[in-house]
Design brief:
The structure is a homodimer. Chain A is of the alpha/beta class. The first copy, chain A, has 3 domains: about 10-60, Orthogonal Bundle (434 Repressor (Amino-terminal Domain)), CATH 1.10.260; about 65-160 and about 295-325, Rossmann fold, CATH 3.40.50; about 165-290, Response regulator (Rossmann fold, 3-Layer(aba) Sandwich). Helix content of chain A is about 40%, strand content about 15%. Chain A has 12 helices and 11 strands. The first copy, chain A, has helices at about 10-15, 20-25, 35-45, 55-60, 80-90, 105-115, 165-175, 190-205, 225-235, 250-260, 280, 295-310; strands spanning about 65-70, 95-100, 120-125, 145, 155-160, 180-185, 240-245, 270, 290, 320, 325. In chain A, strands 2-1-3-4-5-10 form a 6-stranded parallel β-sheet, with helices on both faces. Chain A has a 3-stranded parallel β-sheet with strand order 6-7-8, with helices on both faces. Chain A has a two-stranded antiparallel sheet with strand order 9-11. In chain A, β7, α10 (about 250-260) and β8 (about 270) form a beta-alpha-beta unit. Chains A and B meet through α4, α5, β2, α6 and α9 of A and α4, α5, β2, α6 and α9 of B. Chain B binds a DNA duplex through α2 and α4.
Chain lengths: ~325, ~325
Amino acid sequence: MARKAVTLSDVASAAGVSLATASKALNGRAEVKEETRLRVAATARELSFSHNSIARSLSRGRSGTVGLLTSDLEGRFSLPVLMGAEDALGAGEVSVVLCDARGDAIREQRHINTLLSRQIDGLLVVGSRTDARPSLGRQLGIPVIYVYTPSDDPADISLTPDNVEAGRIAARHLITTGRKRIAHVRGEIDNQASADRAQGITEAMNEAGLQIINEPGYGEWTERWGRSATSLLLGSTTEIDAVLCDSDQIARGALDALRARGRSVPDDVALMGFDNWTLITAETQPGITSVDMNLEYMGRLAARTLFASFEGEVADAGIKHLLCRLVVRGSTMADS
Amino acid sequence: MARKAVTLSDVASAAGVSLATASKALNGRAEVKEETRLRVAATARELSFSHNSIARSLSRGRSGTVGLLTSDLEGRFSLPVLMGAEDALGAGEVSVVLCDARGDAIREQRHINTLLSRQIDGLLVVGSRTDARPSLGRQLGIPVIYVYTPSDDPADISLTPDNVEAGRIAARHLITTGRKRIAHVRGEIDNQASADRAQGITEAMNEAGLQIINEPGYGEWTERWGRSATSLLLGSTTEIDAVLCDSDQIARGALDALRARGRSVPDDVALMGFDNWTLITAETQPGITSVDMNLEYMGRLAARTLFASFEGEVADAGIKHLLCRLVVRGSTMADS
DNA sequence: CTGTTAGCGCATTCAG
DNA sequence: CTGAATGCGCTAACAG
């Protein structure tokens, strides 16, 4: 039943060599005669030997493991990041230990301690909003990379989307497709992503000599808010020909409200969201144009950066803003 | 910079005891004088000592780690399960090593090997559909529990939702609220969940002397399919007063179609889905009544079962079907 | 109660 | 090129 637990010394004696030689052979190390290397490899295969990585870690001093600390697994932002990271890491021989702090600082600290005691070689800290979070400090002794949610310490390495640019991209797309009276339905107040996008939008509008229509103000990241904000907009005397929403969910609510009011999308009014949550944007009729934050890429990049720092390379500290990508669907351009 | 790596023997000598005593003290083991235990604990704290769990694992023979093998991280089914499991496991001192096989058998095998070489104490295999999957075999030497997606080997331990009962629950709810002409919009053909639900629905209908209206047939798990299936239904001469959809996404599509045809929900037609994906069911207007699969509970239970088997308890093999839970919203009952 | 002695399985000096 | 010896940090019998 229980695995025979064939050890390296089993292989060694079976192959008629010493433990040390077997180790070297299996690790492709330095000077071992090709012939013996092959013989050891063969017997290892026969015995279906598998390294005990616990023991290996102990003597090597590295565990081949990285921690993945997330604050909310359910979040739709941390998940793609996690996937990208897991993908890149898993391919590189290293395992990922997952910890969900549930947004609780105590629990986070506990997790960090157990991760550290497990001798992880590096740590990825991923959050689900772009407002900076408290740094874990520089005393951890291992490389740490903050993903999506940046650290508030500029000495840390953080990867986050360039939401200002995302705002520019969105506004420019609407302008390019002929819209002039663009309303911005915002997410929650005091939210960095929303603020950054607003900035980018304003910049792009100014470039074009236009002014944003910004009546409905802030709300939740929900369809409900999208519906009511849009109703407000349509109820006012201000004419609009585009609604730019801070999230796809808000945009979906807006779509329903526009339709209920008899406005056709995109003919009467163009509609856009952010995040490119295809679950929403690709399912509606018409699909909703959005700006993708390249989250999975971000996770992958974070993993690569971690790898690099294992090799001794030092990535530049500070917050690195990653490019976003426009995804056009029917809500801004007919036909498509 | 690098952690001082204070070891147990550092603590021991600092506290003026032997290594062994220090170990026992810190582990709250057998006979150690209360006084010395405290002294050791104190110095350990002073030196901010932290166990090296790699070394500990090596000598104990157990790693305090379980593998979590999933086939699709993005899946909305595996995620809640994973959360529940991570929660229960994390609270119990054990860490979770995450592996995503991306639905690829080769990759899955690779992951299993590295997990095994990492000496995991147990394995959770979670999938995102309820059709049985190939067993990993009984030769792994550690307890394995299949979650959501059951194993095809009855000797394995599997946890999965009771979709037959879910079907009954759904149909009974519609019947209880006075519906008689109920259509079932199904998901993909050859899908176990859909088949099980159909069975339960039929049973409940028969109990009430009713017959299911089942014209539109099978389709994708998408809003699009929900829309077209419902359009078909409404276009036929058969009158209906309820649409029971195999998923919330399908139901949402159905809602749009009903509305487009001028049917009011729930007054003219009641509407239900399965899975209780609140992202959808709670956001629409009205909310969509659904049957929750208790996924997070399932994950938690899986973790507990794993724990139990560490303690030597043997859970009964076979597939255990877990109860589902009706969640009533506005789409089946006015007001609420 | 406490300290001594062995390993856990492997990588790594350093002689041969 | 190969092998005997040493240690990673800790737990687990044993003696004292």
